[in-house]
Each structure stands twice: as structure tokens, then as C-alpha cells.
Automatic annotation (TrEMBL):
GO terms for molecular function: ATP binding. CDD domains: ABC_NikE_OppD_transporters. SUPFAM superfamilies: P-loop containing nucleoside triphosphate hydrolases. This is Nickel import ATP-binding protein NikE. It comes from the Bacteria. The gene is nikE. It comes from Ectobacillus funiculus.
Amino acid sequence: MSLLQVKDVTHTYGSYNLFSRTDQRKRVLSNVSISIGQGMCLGVLGTSGAGKSTLGKVILGLEKPQKGQILFQGHDFYNTDRITRKQLRRDLQVVFQDCYSSVNPRMTAEQIISEPLQNYERMSPGEQKRIVGDLLERVGLNHEDMRKYPHQFSGGQLQRINIARAISLKPKLIVLDEAVSSLDMVNQTNILNLLSELKSAFGLSYLFITHDIKAAYSISDALAVMEKGEIVEECKSKDKLFTSRHPAVQTLLSSILSEHPRYRSLSGGRHYAQPLA
């Protein structure tokens, strides 16, 4: 049984004007179906407006779809009792793109990371501090960093804080919504390496949402491509992406700047060196 199953999910947004709601609705997801197994990373690729982030919100329980099901650990996320839903939320965490808006600027790193622990666990202040210190070291920071505030960290360091918060409850699945997109190339590489290490160490599963095909290729086991709210290509083996002739996939591939001139064709097209990572 899959850890996560998204079954025929359709979601729309209503249109509003200054005075009233109109009858016009915009479909942002259309019969979307994906699955993620235990210990697997599924990369969801697509250009801006493809519906990737909306899919993430629906999976996280932030927006109820008009049609379809979200099955997490065998439970219908939107049709279960309150106690079960709370347990499911514990096992489902998220890391967003903007590391700064994801935290309270008035809270220390210790307070940020310990928020989930306070919501779900009962432990002494000393035990909580020990766990926070261990989590900081796990993500490549220092025990002393727990007293610092968000503005005292770089973007890459603060994203590590968000990752530490996400793994604090040892979840089953983490949704990574453009989690490295706002970082420079060095920090992107470091964070992707960290995520891969944590995936192996804790047996985590990821939904890796991004427009960056190189980042998706480096961390994902399988890939899905979205366009206009639909899954237009699924690759159980990520290398199969390079054989797809779908226009949406070709658009993503053509956005890659080959790292060496030998991989660029004289006609203006590009050849793709494999692997990307």
C-alpha cells in the first residue's frame, strides 16, 4: 500500500470582483492522481501556474478539493475523525520556499524548532532543549544556534532551521514546496545533499515540488510533470524524462543551460548531458 495516494483530485478557485462573487471558476487541478511509497521521493515539475503548489496545499489539508480523495496511510484525509486527522497531520510536514516568512521573526531557533514538539509531545524543558540541540546538529548547525533569531541566520541556515522543525516529530512524509528555489547554487546543493542524507537516515518520503529540473533530478526517485493543472507525464524512472516528447517536458528540458559547449547543438537546440546531478 502506498504511503500517499492522490486519487482523481479536481480543485477550482472562484473569481471575485469588488462587490460580489462571480459565477466564473478557474480549474487549477483536473483529475490529478499520484502515489508515493515509503522512503520514496516524487518530484513534481512544472512551470509557474501549472498547479504544483495547489496540489501541495490539497495534500497538506490546507485546501479541500471539490472532487477526489487524499489517502494518507490508508486514511481519507478529508473524511476521517478529528483524532485520526491530528495524527495524520503529525506525520505530514512541510518546508516552504520562503524561509523567512515561514518563521516568526520574534522567536529563537529553539522556539521555532520546538513548536511541533510542544503541540504533540509531553516532555520536560531539559529534554526539549536536548532534542532541539540534536536536531540543530543533524541539519549542520550548532547547539549554540538555538538562542539566535531568524535575522541572525543566512537564508541557507534558516532553511536548515525549517528542515529541523519539519523532522522534529519524525514524520512519514515531507512536502518540499520549492524548498531550494530561493537559495544560491551553493546553498541549493548543500540543502539537497542534506535532504538526501535525512531521507536515508529516517526513512523519509518526500513530495518535491519545483520548476527546477536539475534539483528534481538530483533528489527524486520518480518524476511527474504538470501543465495547466494536469499530470501530463509520469516517469517511474527519472531518466525516462529525457525520452519524453511531450511539449511541456520539452519546455522544461530546453530551460537547462548545458554546462559545456559540446552539449549544445549548432542549430540552437541543446543536447542533454546525463546525469544532471
